[in-house]
User: Fold this.
Amino acid sequence: MKGLLHIIKIKSPQKLLLFWMILFCSYSATSLRGQQKADSLKALLLNDIPDSTKRDIYQKLGYETLYKSHSEAMSYFVKSNEYATKMDNPKLVFLSLVGMCDVYSIVGEYKQAGDCLTEAIKLVSEKDYTLQALIYGRLATIYSDMNKDSLSLINDKKSLHYNMLQNDSLYIAYDYNNIAGYFSERGNLDSAVYYYNKSFEYLTDTCDNLFAYNLSGLGYVYGSVMDVEKSLNFHHSALELFKANGRTYDTALDEFYIGKLYCRYNHLDSAVVYLEKSLAKSKVLYNHDLLKRNYHLLYKVYNNKMDFANAVKYSRLELLYTDSINQKNNENIIQSVKSKYELEEQTKQLEATQKHNATLTEQRTLLIAICALVLVLLVISIVTLRINRKKNKTNLELVTRLDKTNNSISKLLSIISHDLRNSVGNLNNFTQLMHHSLLDNKSIELMLSKFVPMVDSTHSLLDTLLTWSESNNEIFNPKIEKVSLKHVVELCTRQLTYLAKAKQISLESVVEDTFVYADKNMLLVVLRNLVSNAIKFSESGSSVKIESSLNESYIEFLVHDNGVGMDEEEMAKVLDQTSHYHSRGTSGESGSGLGLSLCNSFINEHGGQLKIHSEKGKGSTFSFVIPQQSEFFIENSNVR
Assistant:
């Protein structure tokens, strides 16, 4: 009795996004209206609608069919979970997991219900009283169904505490009902009656389902003290409300209690009538517990009536049903072995990934060592050249070249640290979580799907740096060539697609289909840094736009965002190449401040200048120009 009341505890809709739709479905006025609503919701799914709307509809359908078809309800909650996971919305994932827990609880699959609840708990904030109350209510249900009544009572009282904090009268009434059920089960009937009456105090609607649960609970209490008349009156009143509200499972359970009561007082014909009704509904619901209890009680009734043919019939049905449950348990064991094998395979893959990461670490260490060695050699060369004063002119040229190479190496290291730090850091966090077995299969799949584009982008960057170093003897002198403007912008957006999708930001490009004379790799680094900064300081759901315009002999590039914007002081710091000014993004992203410094340097190498137009709270526009023709470089640089 007690476990049943937890199952229908859905939290206050005003405090959860879109949750009013779930609550409305759970309390449909009649079965006919409920079916009509389900049909209309299914019809909506045939239209071209956003994923967020589909998720809401599947969640509503889950609760609409919860007490009518458990398998159908489960399929809807699973769909809702898929869309919530795709949207990366923890609260919506939480709600879908609770819905799946409710289905498992109703059909008696308590382990699976507990697994769903364990996943949901990870998504709950300690300060979210609504979800805390919901979790403790569900935990009380699980413990009650596992016959751990003392733990169930503890969690009921915690749920009551959080509902009191938010003054949620309806669910305070539910908590009192559950506590009353605990005392009723343990034979403490005075306390049970007291708490049922406390539950009535918080109810204003006599047609509410909880009103019916309280009536049914009082019927159970008075049946325990042999007050048959009162017990039947309460049970029949509850039964009428359950029927009126289309509560198939609750109707079947109360019919079973009435049949059991008639059987106890030897009204066997009446007992058969109600038990057969309960059995028919239990078959439709495929409720393990009710089927078994009805088969067993019908066997006893017909045995007492000396109708041994029917007694044998129901005894065999009970036995067959028990055998089918044992077969299902064996299937669960097989599934467990399969899961263990899959886990071992995943462990092997993880070990391979760890070896690969170790190789990357060694390569990075080697690169740093080589850079350090080059710097040492450069210093030695400078000292040697300064000692040889007779070759002053040669020394002066060599010192200039060494300084320039030193700056180039510093910039190279800056690019590596700036562009690779987040990627390598995220991969490191992922491998740590995998190493400590803190991720389940679904989380691993989700994270891998996000890391694939990130790794692809990182590989692209490394390939760019390698090509750059092979094609330029002096690394950061621009290598001017005819470059397709559209191709460079497409490369930039492709490399940053994963970053934009992670924050649900759209990338748009409106560029001239023309050619410019520039260093392709420098131009790509500048655009990638400006666009990634725009994404960093934009809110989820906004857009970043890349534009170009032809102005006489120059091409102007513009990167727009609708992000947090900057004031005059912040813009001055950003344009100051010596300050490396940086701040955190809208999702807490960190940075070194080197990106814009590199951009300024590379734009200057092309004879351009970085400009910023920004307003606090209204977004920013970063722009720069480069010559469209190659004559600029012949006249104004040492590039030939």
Observations:
- Residues 11-123 form a domain with the Serine Threonine Protein Phosphatase 5, Tetratricopeptide repeat fold (CATH 1.25.40).
- The chain has a mean pLDDT of 78.
- Residues 136 and 158 are 6 Å apart (CA to CA).
- The radius of gyration is 35 Å.
